[in-house]
Each structure stands twice: as structure tokens, then as C-alpha cells.
Amino acid sequence: MIGNQEFWEKQYAKTENNLWGLQPIHTLVEYTSLLESKSKVLDLGMGEGRNALYFSRRGFVTEGIDISETAVLRAKKYAEENNLAMKAEVGDVTSFEIKENTYSLIILANVLNFFQEKDIKNIIEKAKKGLMKDGFIYINVFDRKDPSLERNRNNGHQRLNDLTFYRQATNSYIHYFSKEELMNYFTGYQTIKMADSYLLDINHGEPHYHSIIEMLVKKEESLI
Q1: Which of 51, 147, 221, 224 has the fewest beta carbons under 10 Å from its own?
Q2: What is the CATH number of the domain that holds 97?
Q3: How many CB atoms lie within 10 A of CB 202?
Q4: Tally of domains in the chain
Q5: Cα of 180 vs its chain's centroid, Å
Q6: What φ, ψ does residue 162 adopt, rounded to 5°?
Q7: What is the 3-state secondary structure (H, E, C) of the chain?
Q8: What is the pLDDT of residue 51?
Q9: What pTM did the predictor assign?
Q10: Residue 71 is part of which domain span?
Q11: How much is the pLDDT for 203?
Q12: Other CB atoms closer than 10 Å to residue 114's CB: what's the count?
């Protein structure tokens, strides 16, 4: 996805410190105790590593990929400065090969909303196959109440459907989710958390609002 690569590289490169901050997502911290010690964690679209670094500090075998070289280099630098054995590499989540039955937790934080539906399905299916028995998938996405939805509807972007847009200026996609849509991908999984929130984002650019869905699901033994 060359367009996405160029878009995200520019976003990270123009930010001197870090784009999203270095504090891990609260839900991941809250449910860390559900994971067995030293189990494997994979962060897809890791950015500068705020979540991957958190799990690495706590002794988990942590891997992460991101399409931005700048972001990955920063994540590696933070890991080296803190003597953390975290693996980070540049990669595209749509083509990255996830080893099956390997991970106790796979993270997709603020990632899926930047793809069209066929790629979203592909990424989720790969992540599901990558989970061990009793493994977890965490997802964080924009929902249909996000203020940017109306802006994307009204500013001339190519509309693939009412909730998915192609933005020609950045050669990138954006998709808005519902809880029902996410749940349909995880039939048979145990829902640990499903929540929506409306929040002020002060991590990058001018302060602005987002409406998001958080989802944490567990792979049941019957799905193995």
C-alpha cells in the first residue's frame, strides 16, 4: 500500500517527538493480568511503540510492525534506551505474514479504520488465525458518530459506500465502524470488553474530537 506508506511516513516525519504519545492504551493496561507471563504479543500498526513498549517492559515477548520507517526507528530507539528486547520492523499489515497459533494478544489500535473493507476482512482473518487458544484481539476504531465522517461525506472524497472513502490527496482510505459490524467478524469469541466513547484527542495536531469503539475478544477453545 504505497499510498498509505507515503501518508504515514509524512505524518511521523513532521512530528519531532512522537505522534500518539508513549502512554499505553488504558484498556490494555487494565486487562494485562489476563495474559500468562512471557507470552507473545503482536502489535500491528504499532506506530512509535506505545503499546508494544509497555508489554515489553513487563516481560512479554513483543513484536510490532508499522508501515512508517520513521515510526519503527523511534520505537527501536526507545526499546534500546530502556534495554528492552522488543522486535520492531517496517511492514504492511495487509501483506505481513502472521504465524498461526502463536500469539496470546494481537493489537490493532487505530489501524483498521484506515483501510477499505476487503483489506479490513483480510487483516482480521489473519489476526484470528495468529491467536493461540485463549488468545485475545484488541481493536480500537472510529465509529459512525466520529465528527470526521460528515467532513469526509461533504468534501468531495470518492465514496466507496456510505461509510468508506478514498482520499485522493493522500492516496488513503478511511472507514467508520459499528459495534455490530465488528461483532460479526468474531462470532464464537468471548467478548471481554465492548465500549464506545467520545473523547478529546490532544496527542497530535490541534485538539479535536473522536468517537471510537474499543473491543477486546477472546478466542474460545471450540474455535481451535
Answers
A1: 221
A2: 3.40.50.150
A3: 10
A4: 1
A5: 19
A6: -65, -15
A7: CHHHHHHHHHHHHCCCCCCCCCCCCHHHHHCHHHCCCCCEEEEECCCCCHHHHHHHHCCCEEEEEECCHHHHHHHHHHHHHCCCCCEEEECCCCCCCCCCCCEEEEEEECCHHHCCHHHHHHHHHHHHHHEEEEEEEEEEEEECCCCHHHHHHHCCCEEEECCEEEECCCCEEEECECHHHHHHHCCCCEEEEEEEEEEEECCCCCCEEEEEEEEEEECCHHHC
A8: 96
A9: 0.89
A10: 2-223
A11: 65
A12: 22
The residues, any chain, with a CB within 8 Å of residue 73's CB and separated by 6 or more, are: none
Tens-digit pLDDT profile for residues 83-108: 999 999 999 999 999 999 999 999 99
Express each pLDDT in 112-167 by its tens digit: 999 999 999 999 999 999 999 999 999 999 999 988 888 888 887 889 988 999 98
Provide the β-strand partners of residue 63.
Answer: 42, 87
Residue whose C-alpha is closest to residue 80's, from 53, 54, 107, 60: 53
Please tell me the distance from the alpha carbon of residue 28 to that of residue 9, in angstroms, as a whole number. Answer: 26
Rounded distance between C-alpha atoms, residue 67 and residue 72, angstroms: 8
How many other CB atoms are there within 10 angstroms of residue 100's CB atom? 12
Return the C-alpha cell found at 200: 478529546
Instruction: Look at the block and give the residue holding cell 516525519.
Output: 13
